[in-house]
Amino acid sequence: MLKNLRGLFSNDLSIDLGTANTLIYVRDQGIVLDEPSVVAIRVHNGQKTIEAVGTDAKRMLGRTPGNITAIRPLKDGVIADFQVTEKMLQHFIAKVHENSFIRPSPRVLICVPCMSTQVERRAIRESALSAGAREVRLIEEPMAAAIGAGLAVEEANGSMVVDVGGGTTEIAIISLNGVVYRDSVRVGGDRFDEAIVSHVRRRYGSLIGDATAERIKEEVGCAFAGSELREIDVRGRNLAEGVPRSFSLNSDEILEALQEPLTQIVQAVKSALEQSPPELAADIAESGIVLTGGGALLRDLDRLIADETGLPVIVADDPLTCVARGGGRAMELMDRHTIDLLSTE
Amino acid sequence: MEDSDTKAAQSSGAPGGLLSAAREAQGISQREMADRLNWLPNYVGAIESNRFDQLRNPNFGRGYLKAYGKLVGVSEVDLIEAYEALPDVDEADKARTRRVKRAVPQVQKLGPAIPAGIMAALLLVALLWYLRGDEAEPIVVPAVTAVQEAGAEPTSPLPLGEMTEQQLASDAVIEAQGLELGSGSEPLQEQSSEPEPLSESTAVEPPIQAAAIENPAAEAPDMLSPVVVESGPLLNFSFSGACWIEIRNAAAELIYANLHDAGNTLQVGGEAPFDVLVGDARMVTLTYLGEAVPIKRRPGRVIARFTVGE
Q1: Which of A150, A264, A334, B208 is within CB 3.0–4.6 Å of B172 for a Cys-Cys bond?
Q2: How far is B121 from chain A, CA to nearest CA, in Å?
Q3: CA distance B45 to chain A (A)
């Protein structure tokens, strides 16, 4: 009963609980929170306390003293640390309602990877309930991404979505409010970063952190051979000498480093096309593949997929927020038409 | 026709015009451009003449423009600005990508006085709810406690398992009518009326209590103990003060309900687990299968409801 009362003062939320970033969309307000899914924990006398969450915690990644650990509680799109995820959600929900004078108890829709198991989905549901949500609904990420990208999911018309997230890449063919084909590969932005770190270590004998690798990816990273050449200066610790050294990286090197994860994504897309029913494949050939997720911002990823598949590829508007926006829209649709866009746990 | 549309678009500075001008400057035909983009051939013409409704999914207008612009080297920003300036582009499409950076909580919009008023109303509701919750709990009526004193005759053992609830209610009333008030209690004014048949099991207790209160001629039994009901594992209660007790068996049937006083003991058997309600947990000790069972109660409450023999 108290939860329902508190619910009167809470907004309905759509949460994209991603490996790299968590986004929260509030109905009629848009995206109100976009923070890294990172939690910093301080251990003092055996007691664990939350030191920082989100952006503040991300700044601490790799820069913490012995008694503080900055961790990512989600791995490959699913919960790796239940308690920390719960605390993180609690923090984010409270932050969205920070001017509210009573503890919020919102209705929450959470986007989950399409190939996540029942156990993983239950963990996400329980985590949100423990974080104070009064009702939790789940939706598969590609469905939310498709709605967020403006695809007509309710029509008898095949649409293909490739959502390149932090931990996973979700591929789905959607028609009539349902997912006809789904696949998920555990390749995403994090794998790109790892590939860059490993390339730098191999080529330059230097060690760089994840944050530097991410900056390199954003500034000079590219996925297609014909792209414009760019350069960046970075600093890393030389493994042989043990001192920091500067060196330059160009986009061709990064392309080479990213070959393996990119190939896996392209293979998954091709495999989806091979297995799609012919009518839907024809629809996709006409309207194209839609790229969403933060990974879609990798320069010329659309050109690579277009080149490999021979199909039009469109990067959705504001691909980073597609899933969260789509979740919010799905929530409205479900309230209005009582249609079932959800996977039931 | 298509060429004239394209020329019109070029002169108006619409996105299609920018793209077609860039394409022509590079000497690429519409067909070639469609091949490079993997588009249907008519899409290039449709976009260059700003006829986005001819696309299979008009929502992809921006996506197509960006892909085309990237290939011919037209700035994405210019294209989107030109696209949004088109009269046909509706507000919903423009708003779709607008991101709100800062949340404005609903409560903030109400102003400071309204939330305070709502808070006060909420507190009132919560208080009423809390008080109502107290009333709903079974209560040990003080007048009834006076009825049963140590040394009173044992009352009927009340094997309630097979009795109907109407029987239970009327028996309880009869029993209460036969009791006598203790010396310390004052006689009440009114005689009890005929009990009405009850429909719900929870309604059993009020007639018992009401009858006991209203009947001045009732005689208190000397002793209520020991009482043995049914067979099976036995619950052994001993009472150090006045306490109402209700016991239900595994099938949720009410097998025993009565008021006991200090010094009474009670043995009840039946099919475990038992759901037990005691009016004053401080006054009861319970043993089950030879072991003492701790009776837990909520802080500040004397009433306890618990299950034994799970």
Answers
A1: B208
A2: 12
A3: 15
Q: Using CB atoms, which residue from A32, A157, A290 is nearest to B100?
A: A32
B295, amino acid identity: I
Q: What percent of chain B has a predicted confidence (pLDDT) above 90?
A: 0
Interchain contact B106–A (C-beta under 8 A): yes
pLDDT for B14 = 81
Give start and end residues of each alpha helix (H) in chain B: 2-12, 15-25, 30-37, 41-48, 61-72, 76-84, 91-96, 106-109, 113-136, 142-147, 165-177, 205-214
CA B261 – CA B147 distance, rounded (Å): 9
Q: For the residues A227-231, what does the mean pLDDT come to?
A: 86
Is A304 annotated to bind a ligand? Reply is: no
Non-local CB neighbours of A312 within 8 Å, separated by 6+ positions: A287, A288, A289, A306, B37, B38, B39, B64, B67
Please tell me the distance from the alpha carbon of residue A72 to that of residue A62, in angstroms, as a whole number.
12
Cα(B54)–Cα(B42) distance, rounded to whole angstroms? 9
Q: Is B25 helix (H, G, I), strand (E, B) or coil?
A: helix
Nearest to A101 among B40, B96, B119 (CB): B119
Distance between terminal CA atoms of chain A?
24
User: Hey, which residues 305-344 in chain A have their CB within 8 Å of chain B?
Assistant: 306, 309-318, 321
Instruction: Specify the pLDDT at position A273.
Output: 93
- The answer to whether B109 contacts chain A (CB < 8 Å) is no
Q: And the tokens for A142?
A: 């590609």
SS3 state of residue B304: strand
- Do A247 and A276 touch, CB atoms closer than 8 A? no
Contact check, Cβ <8 Å, B99/A31: yes
Whole-angstrom distance, CA of residue A236 vs CA of residue A216: 12
What predicted TM-score, i.e. pTM, was given to this entire model? 0.62
Taking the C-alpha atoms of residue B305 and residue B298, their distance in angstroms, rounded to an integer, is 10
- A99 to chain B, any CB pair closer than 8 A? The answer is yes
φ, ψ dihedrals at A71, nearest 5° = -130, 155
A295 and A301 Cβ atoms separated by less than 8 Å = yes
Q: What are residue A109's DSSP bridge partners? A: A14, A137
Query: How far apart are the C-alpha atoms of A252 and A232, rounded to whole Å?
Result: 12
Six token digits for residue B232: 């099976």
Contact call for B104 and A29, based on CB within 8 A: yes
Contact residues, chain B, for A11 at CB < 8 Å: 105-106
